[in-house]
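Structure in, sequence out. Go:
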């Protein structure tokens, strides 16, 4: 047992943490995930009635069915595996219930690929839109391998590409953002790149292509309302933007006026005109790219423009991004809890901080806020989300977000990420990666199975909130910056907690309006107790509790009770789901997960977060050697270690008998542990000294 720091507990708590006896990278919780068949022509994805469906004629295999996506991001070189690695990775992801991979950040030069190094991008070089042949061939092969395992792809177009300076004195910001939106040469380059990509990957004849995203986290209107345009748009690009502004004013019969690069210090009228100008430029860019893709691949291919809202440690976006995405056929958004902060240089993996906070600490501004990023009548996807390692409360993320997505009837959840590199198979944790984060790996297939099964009476009743164009523009001049819930609460008294019991859709109207569309019954619930710092969540098919659970005190949900036992530190996430698709009360086959946090190892035991010498609530892992401020998040020594959570568990399920099987971390069912069965409850203990260490349990009920 080790004493590890936790910022949310007044004193350092004794934590029971021990090495994981991993023989492979298999997951323990793939119960209920059926083998996925290869995708065929009838599996092409289309948009209908505000959701994703498969195409094809009714009655044909796989055709005309609603589909939800539960997946992971791959970034950079992870998108270009060798043939052997691609097959192994596709198989691994299918085992976890993944049915979509987001191919992210491929738009950069391939570099020097070899037997020991994948390509890091698909471009031949940074100057030309032509593709590297080997990289394109490897990506096409990988998409085929994913398809054979029933996994679709979400192809991202502009993410990373930084255009080289083509004139002396050109200033090109990172990833060229936002120049690629309005510079005519860059726009034509992107069109040629799209044509080359579609041809090389044969996307028109690829049923596995589920969706395409035009541009990642980039709009002029966001940069303008946040005041960052002066640092991003300079020299001839500023002149180009000012010329377009002058032309805009002439076309709209407005008198000449200087282009305000920030919304502050100008009249309300000029600020509103500038907001409309930037929104029109953003929307025109998305319109052009969307029409280009549709012409090449087909008009039914789901396309997103750019994220309505996104944010790591700071939020970005706004209501006007619905206008920006007017031609998009689906909407996506990103959100993170306790994203890394890099105090000196962005993405310096040896100099990072986290606050080690809990999902519920700011639920209104993160978890619930993202519900307002959904547009009525269009599918909604969270294409990036995470509470990245080594946060010690990250066990809350997957189950709670999954339950919210079920209740909101969203269409996709894509965790960021599986891997940034070729080391997809490692079993130690690192940065955002799921591949070695055993806390989330224990829960992933369980959450995939629950979300992808569209079950009756699990969606909240719908509420549509309408804002006028004029109000959306005025909100941009006030820098809403993605704080949708706070704005609606301040301006219109909409409760911040509305998404915790109503399904939210945003719409356009001549004036503000809130309309409850239906009062359909629902079994879903999401109860956030801010005083006790606990969340109870679930439906007829799932039950969970997360947060700071007092040791030796029972915490109850409608069907699941948990009592943490010493020496627990007083935090846990327990999640119970039906494996046989029956409601919990009638199910004969259940899965319970109760993982602790994950750490790598040092020579003296498990890694630990430390706050010594850091200002405020920031924490990091100190390196074992060298002078860096932090241990390298991309180079973590094994074995992986996990917090062990001892608890008493009680299920209020009528039964004649029950067997409770701990599952090893490689998926093996261990010998049954003692369980007390009455006519109304099944009670058992887990992870005490006399019991095996496990983070998941298969429960077989006799009715």
């Amino acid at each position: 047992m080790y004493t590890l720091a936790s910022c949310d507990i007044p004193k350092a708590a004794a934590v029971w943490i021990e090495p994981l006896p991993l023989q492979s990278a298999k997951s323990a919780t793939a119960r209920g995930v059926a083998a996925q068949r290869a995708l065929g022509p009838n599996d092409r994805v289309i948009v209908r009635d505000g959701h994703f469906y498969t195409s094809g004629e009714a009655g044909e295999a796989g055709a005309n069915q609603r589909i939800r996506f539960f997946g992971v991001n791959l970034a950079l070189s992870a998108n270009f595996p060798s043939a052997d690695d691609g097959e192994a990775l596709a198989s691994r992801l299918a085992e976890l219930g993944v049915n979509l991979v987001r191919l992210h950040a491929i738009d950069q030069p391939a570099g020097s690929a070899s037997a020991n190094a994948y390509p890091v991008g698909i471009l031949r070089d940074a100057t030309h839109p032509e593709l590297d042949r080997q990289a394109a061939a490897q990506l096409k092969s990988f998409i085929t391998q994913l398809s054979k395992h029933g996994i679709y792809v979400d192809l991202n177009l502009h993410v990373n590409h930084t255009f080289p300076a083509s004139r002396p004195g050109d200033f090109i910001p990172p990833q060229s953002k936002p120049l690629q939106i309005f510079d005519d040469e860059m726009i034509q380059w992107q069109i040629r790149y799209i044509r080359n990509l579609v041809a090389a990957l044969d996307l028109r004849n690829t049923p596995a292509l589920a969706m395409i995203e035009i541009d990642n986290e980039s709009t002029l209107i966001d940069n303008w309302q946040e005041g960052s345009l002066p640092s991003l748009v300079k020299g001839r690009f500023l002149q180009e933007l000012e010329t377009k502004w002058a032309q805009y004013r002439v076309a709209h019969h407005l008198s000449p006026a200087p282009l305000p690069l920030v919304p502050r210090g100008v009249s309300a009228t000029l600020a509103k005109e500038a907001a409309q100008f930037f929104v029109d430029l953003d929307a025109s860019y998305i319109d052009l790219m969307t029409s280009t893709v549709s012409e090449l691949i087909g008009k039914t291919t789901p396309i997103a423009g750019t994220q309505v809202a996104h944010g790591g440690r700071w939020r970005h976006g706004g209501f006007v991004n619905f206008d920006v995405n007017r031609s998009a056929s689906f909407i996506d958004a990103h959100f993170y809890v306790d994203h890394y902060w890099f105090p000196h240089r962005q993405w310096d993996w040896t100099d990072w901080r986290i606050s080690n906070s809990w999902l519920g600490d700011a639920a209104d501004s993160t978890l619930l806020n993202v519900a307002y990023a959904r547009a009525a009548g269009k599918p909604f996807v969270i294409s990036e989300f995470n509470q990245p390692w080594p946060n010690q409360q990250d066990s809350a993320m997957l189950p709670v977000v999954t339950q919210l997505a079920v209740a909101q009837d969203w269409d996709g959840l894509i965790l960021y990420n599986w891997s940034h590199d070729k080391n997809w198979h490692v079993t130690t944790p690192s940065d955002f990666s799921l591949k070695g984060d055993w806390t989330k790996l224990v829960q992933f297939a369980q959450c995939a199975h629950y979300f992808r099964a569209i079950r009756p009476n699990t969606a909240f009743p719908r509420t549509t909130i309408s804002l006028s164009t004029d109000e959306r523009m005025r909100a941009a001049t006030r820098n809403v910056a993605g704080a949708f819930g706070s704005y609606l609460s301040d301006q219109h008294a909409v409760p911040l907690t509305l998404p915790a019991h109503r399904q939210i859709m945003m719409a356009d109207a001549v004036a503000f309006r809130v309309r409850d569309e239906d009062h359909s019954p629902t079994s879903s619930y999401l109860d956030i107790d801010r005083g006790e710092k606990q969340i109870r969540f679930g439906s007829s098919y799932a039950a969970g509790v997360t947060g700071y659970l007092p040791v030796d005190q029972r915490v109850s949900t409608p069907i699941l009770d948990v009592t943490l036992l010493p020496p627990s530190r007083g935090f846990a996430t327990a999640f119970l789901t039906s494996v046989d698709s029956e409601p919990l009360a009638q199910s004969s086959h259940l899965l319970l997960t109760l993982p602790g946090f994950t750490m790598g190892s040092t020579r003296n035991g498990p890694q630990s977060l430390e706050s010594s010498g850091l200002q405020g609530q920031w924490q990091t892992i100190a390196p074992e050697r060298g002078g860096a401020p932090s241990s390298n998040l991309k180079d973590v020594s094994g074995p992986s270690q996990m917090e062990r959570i001892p608890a008493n568990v009680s299920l209020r399920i009528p039964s004649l008998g029950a067997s409770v099987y701990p599952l090893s971390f490689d998926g093996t069912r261990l010998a049954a542990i003692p369980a007390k069965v009455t006519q109304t409850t099944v009670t058992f203990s887990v992870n005490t000294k006399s019991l095996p260490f496990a983070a998941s349990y298969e429960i077989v009920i006799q009715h």
